[in-house]
Each structure stands twice: as C-alpha cells, then as structure tokens.
Write a structure and sequence with these properties.
With 286 residues, the protein is of the alpha/beta class. Helices cover 21% and strands 33% of the residues. It is built from six helices and 13 strands. The chain is globular.
Length: 286
C-alpha cells in the first residue's frame, strides 16, 4: 500500500503518507452498513466498489454493520430469510464465507468497526464477529484491524518538508433517521462528544446518505482567528429492502428506498498562496 498503517491504540488508527509532488494523492473508500450476509445486500454493487478500490489503490474503511447477524436461533428478530450457505453453524459459516469473499481485498481492507448488529451478537452470544472476521483476513495475509463502535483515524502527511495531519472521528450511529431530519442532527451530538480539532465526522446506521461541510472558527496560538471546514459524512447502505416496492417489512412500514453506497475520500497535495497544503474532497460511490 502507498501509505503506512499503524494501530496507535485500541481506538486510534494512524495512516502515514509521503507526498513528493503537487497532485500526489491518496484515496479511501468509506463504507458502512454492508449487511453482507443479508439476502437483500446488493453484493454486485459492493463488489464493483471494492474492485474499483483495488484498481485505484485505495484503502477501505468500514464503520459498522458489515454484517446483519439476525438469523440465529436465539435472536427474536429472526425471519427465516437467510442465505442457504449460512443455515448450518450460523455465526461460524458467516465468518468463514465472508473471509473467502473478501479475500481479494485483503491488501486494501484496513479497518472494520463495530455496529449495533455486531455489538448485539457480542452482548448476547459472547462472540466478537468483527474480531474473528479480521483475524480470518489476517490469516490469509491481509491487514484488517477491528475498530470500536466509535474511534479516531489520524491521516498524517509529509509534503515538501511540511508536516500536517487530519483527524476523522467515526461513530457507527444511534437512534433513527426520520423522513424529515434523516439523522442529520446527530452530527451536532458527535461534535459535542469530542474536544479538540476533528476534520471529518463519519457515521452510518440510519441508512441515509449525505455529505456536507460545516464552517467553524478557532483561535490559534498566535491570536489569529482561523476559519476551517469540517465535513460531516453519512454513509449509505448496501441493503436494498425496497427493491420494486412489492412487499416486505420495509415496504409495510412505509419506508422509502435508501441510497446505496459510500463515499470516496481523496487527499491531494496542493499549493495555495505559495503554501503547501493537503486538500480533501468527497465523491459518492454509487
């Protein structure tokens, strides 16, 4: 990979970049709510995005609910809608088949966080599916590391004798996203959780999708007031429960189709007013 990946602590992961020239760049594919084991997961779309990440030499980061995990005998939510390969030895078969399916992406899959679905299994069944999945990927020669329900990623850059960093705080998400708010107000809660500079807030969970900038002011050590842009990113899902709207729990509850896919995060070395800087941009993966 064209960057250094380091586990700085249980809840902090660091990515180091050495840029040599203007226009040098590095991309990451930010994903959430794959629900890979659910029959409604659009695996064709997911595979296309993951293949594109490999082609673009991008790192892949998943911030929760990589799996659905709702069809075990002990789960009161089970519906019987389970993939045939997962009927026997439910949790074990999901881990083993997922490791096989994701193996082509083992050199790009960096971090897999906990979501509410994995957290529920860990609480009620005393098995950590994310830890087991990441271990299975590493046994195949990969580098995947488990993340928390929330955590930090520091992107550190060295560019023409200039060093800088940008911090991403992720939180899988909580509550619901109403038709009107779509969970957008949750980002205010995330910002209240964190003291200090965070450049990107990323969340999932509510199966909505949006990316918007927020302007913030800060007083620097030289007593200058600096305006800076903070990005709030809500990652979509790969679980398409609406389909053609014919039937199903999602349709019965009057829920609309959900935007599928995540976002590409691109860091690029630029020169602005003779200063060397790192510019970040977001593009939909759809």
């Amino acid at each position: 990979m064209p960057f250094n990946f380091e586990v700085c602590s249980r809840n902090v992961h660091c990515l180091g970049h050495q840029f040599q020239n203007v226009k040098d760049h590095q991309e990451y594919l930010l994903l959430s709510d794959l629900h890979w084991d659910n029959p409604h997961c659009d695996r064709k779309l997911l595979k296309r995005h993951l293949d594109e990440a490999v082609a673009r030499d991008a790192g892949i980061i998943i911030i929760g609910d990589a799996f659905c995990l709702m069809e075990s005998r002990s789960d009161g939510r089970r519906s019987g809608n389970v993939r045939p390969e997962h009927i026997t030895n439910y949790f074990d078969s999901i881990v083993s088949t997922a490791a096989d399916w994701f193996e082509p992406y083992k050199d790009h899959l960096l971090l897999v966080g906990q979501g509410n679905h994995e957290a529920s299994v860990k609480k009620h069944n005393e098995t950590d599916i994310i830890e087991r999945f990441c271990q299975a990927i590493r046994l195949r020669g990969g580098i995947a590391q488990p993340g928390g329900y929330s955590g930090f990623i520091r992107f550190a850059f060295s560019f023409s004798k200039t060093r800088s960093s940008q911090v991403l705080f992720y939180h899988h998400g909580y509550g619901g996203g109403s038709r009107n708010t779509r969970g957008t107000g949750h980002f205010a809660a995330y910002q209240q959780m964190i003291a200090g500079q965070v450049d990107i807030f990323a969340a999932g969970h509510v199966h909505q999708k949006e990316c918007f900038p927020v302007m913030m002011a800060a007083l620097k050590s030289n007593n200058r007031v600096e305006q800076r842009t903070v990005h709030c990113v809500r990652l979509g899902t790969y679980k398409d429960e609406y389909a053609d709207g014919h039937e199903g729990f999602h349709v019965e509850k009057g829920r609309a189709p959900r935007a599928l896919g995540g976002y590409w995060l691109n860091f690029e070395a630029v020169t602005r007013n003779r200063l060397k800087k790192i510019n970040r941009t977001f593009t939909e993966a759809n």
